[in-house]
């Protein structure tokens, strides 16, 4: 019997339409505006949101550490769903899987992030600690008027 690997799911109500939230996940320039768990800078962001396309984000946290994550898009449904692999350049053997689902609701978007197939529970817990504030930043970013993006 195979033991199921740890996963996490976070559901958020975002005060922006699905198209705006989707753009923030798939347009490099917009990804760079919110990615990461704290106010540290995004050093580079690249995205090619198509099946088989790649993404890579390099960011620095306020403690001065640089983090480099990358992955491959496995499913892409514009304004609805993204599924991609997730790995840190320093530990590619710990590849995991992220699914982002976007559902329109009355005041914006219900975002469901599922991050699955973690190496262990400690890795899952570390990602929970990172994703929660990152999604706070995403919500704040997409709630701004679009003309403030530049």
TrEMBL record:
A Pfam family per the record: AHSA1
Every Activator of Hsp90 ATPase homologue 1/2-like C-terminal domain range: 15-142
Family that this chain belongs to: Belongs to the AHA1 family.
Name recorded for this polypeptide: SRPBCC domain-containing protein
Taxonomic lineage: Bacteria, Pseudomonadati, Pseudomonadota, Betaproteobacteria, Burkholderiales
């Amino acid at each position: 019997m195979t033991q199921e690997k740890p996963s996490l799911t976070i559901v958020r109500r975002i005060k922006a339409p699905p198209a705006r939230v989707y753009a923030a996940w798939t347009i490099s320039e917009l990804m760079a505006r919110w990615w990461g768990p704290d106010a540290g800078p995004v050093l580079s962001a690249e995205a090619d949101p198509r099946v088989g396309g790649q993404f890579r984000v390099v960011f620095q946290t306020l403690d001065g550490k640089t983090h480099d994550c990358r992955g491959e898009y496995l499913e892409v449904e514009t304004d609805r769903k993204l599924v991609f692999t997730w790995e840190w350049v320093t530990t590619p053997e710990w590849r995991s899987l992220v699914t982002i689902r976007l559902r329109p609701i009355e005041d914006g978007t219900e975002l469901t992030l599922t991050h699955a197939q973690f190496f262990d529970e400690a890795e899952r817990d570390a990602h929970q600690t990172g994703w929660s504030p990152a999604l706070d930043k995403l919500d704040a970013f997409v709630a701004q008027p679009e003309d403030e993006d530049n």
